[in-house]
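Throughout our pipeline, every protein is held as a single compact record rather than as scattered files. Nothing more is needed to write down the fold, since each code stands for a local backbone conformation. For reference, a complete record is included directly beneath this paragraph.
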Amino acid sequence: MPSKKKVTLYDTTLRDGNQAIGIGLSLSDKLDIAERLDALGVHYIEGGWPNPGNTTDREFYQKVAGRKLKSKIAVFGSTRRPGTKCSADPFLKALVSANAPVATVFGKSWDLHVRKIIGTSMSENLDMIGESVAYLKRHKDEVLFDAEHFFDGYRAHPEYALKTLEVARQAGADVLVLCDTNGGMLPGEFLEMFRATAAKIDASLGVHMHNDAGCAEANTFLGVQEGAVQIQGTINGLGERCGNTNLCTVIAGLQIKHGYKLITAAQLKRLTETSVFISEIANVSHNVRHPYVGESAFSHKAGAHADGVRKVRESFEHIDPSLVGNFRRFVVSDQAGRSNILEKLSTMYPGLDKNDSRVKKVLAEIKRLESAGYHFEAADGSFRLLVERVMGNFRAPFSVRGFRVTEEQRDTGELFSEATIKVEENGQFEHTAAEGDGPVNALDNALRKALIKFFPSLAEVRLDDFKVRVLDGSEGTGAKVRVLIESSDGKERWGTVGVSTNIIEASWIALIDSLLYKLLKEQTSWHSNRERR
């Protein structure tokens, strides 16, 4: 087995993951996810394909620089088109103009695609690869070559597939990434092809596996075992068709079981949190059976398993769940979660005793809300409000005495939304109405209009994103929904959450929390300044 080399993590959730059915990340979503990936310690973050028609991805590269991330930002695109000079190709020019130090360019390694998909000659395809890599190398710090359909190409025409790699290497590519674009490779065949390639190509190799045969992670592990220095994949395995290599599984497996130092131990503890956060932002249900990061990964029902793991942890758990920020759950006795909550509380209240009765109250309240459908991984604002209320350090400075929402379709065919609301602050009442682009927007406008008189700083709060998730489709239109709102005031962004069988009520709960969190921030800042004085 080759000696261990440094292995880098290349995340393509924002591009390949965004191609999954049902996923449609906004610009705000992408920037938020990029920050979480950076905090996780991912080495490369691929933002997307900023071709001339893709406004969101072009804006991502313009704005991500303002987030001051430590991860390297990579831009993705194709080689030049047949018969076109690199300097005149609009797609390559878009890669050069993108604000990213790394360019990942894909080219065809399967002769079938060369002849029947892009319709050019074998020699022209080689020129396209070499010239494109060389052109990008003059403008970027690093250039990665993704050999698309490499394994299918190697099976059909090994000499040509290897030639595409050699051309890219000679042109200056820093890493040659072998892609199983169709996702059909089984481990035995993959291993044979990877070894043969590594023996003939003197270059740094990476792997980019899809999961159509259910072997993406297994093949990735084998690739690293055989000397691959870069892993490309997505959080939670999001991607086209059956998805990509799940980086959560690979990071945990390589680091805990094989001793690779991919990220720090502290970052590894954020793996579960990051996984759930990205599911929430992508507005998909988190897979409870994900290895390492799923809710069921360390769950035990009453009986022999539960009894055994209480006596000796490793008897029914392959790793300590706390290493990846997950925790043990006993389905019947329900003893889970205390250490995780304590860890979050310790950032808010350093030195807090885990036996403090208030910790028990916080845990009990979170369990109650989670059983009702709440998730707090992407709702930090609601989580902090909950904690401060239970700890006795925050009380809502206003109360809502009632609200009403009216929806009307007029003769023009347009829908008209209006909300009326009555609030009280220290014995003073404000009764107001506002229109909006839909009932939630009308409620938001009316609420701000009523409260700004008492709390002028709420004018700074902006609702940046709004997501709705149906929690139980079996109830049809009567199912519970979870509403996730992201807000900002120009200095900080925060998420809030509401759950109800009524979408308006769920939205209302999240809206109220979004404004209360702003007031909580000001209260905390006021107390801190007073203490300093």
Q: What stands out?
A: The two ends are 63 Å apart (CA to CA). Residues 8-282 form a domain with the TIM Barrel fold (CATH 3.20.20.70). The chain has three domains: 8-282, 359-393+461-533, 398-454.
